[in-house]
């Protein structure tokens, strides 16, 4: 048993708590547009991450939405790789970032009934449009 703040806790519980404290996370969802071309998957290594829409002719295939932790944040290279993998899964040649910001993703209440504090949990939200060049 480990003693933490004067309380005895099983060693496994302490170890799990330490693992959770240092973990960053990245969650991604991909949505293909209805009526858009449905392309075969491409190679994630070939998908470009762009900040502006290209002038080269292209079609929009769908969107990728990424949720990432900010405390601790994952490496930006991991976020970009996840974006490339998701875009490649629906046949994209590039992912055009529409927004990338830190915003509240949840809210919780703490404290006694008569003196509660409302706290926000923030996370990184990134949205990109997946395109295929013509």
Automatic annotation (TrEMBL):
<protein>
    <submittedName>
        <fullName>Uncharacterized protein</fullName>
    </submittedName>
</protein>
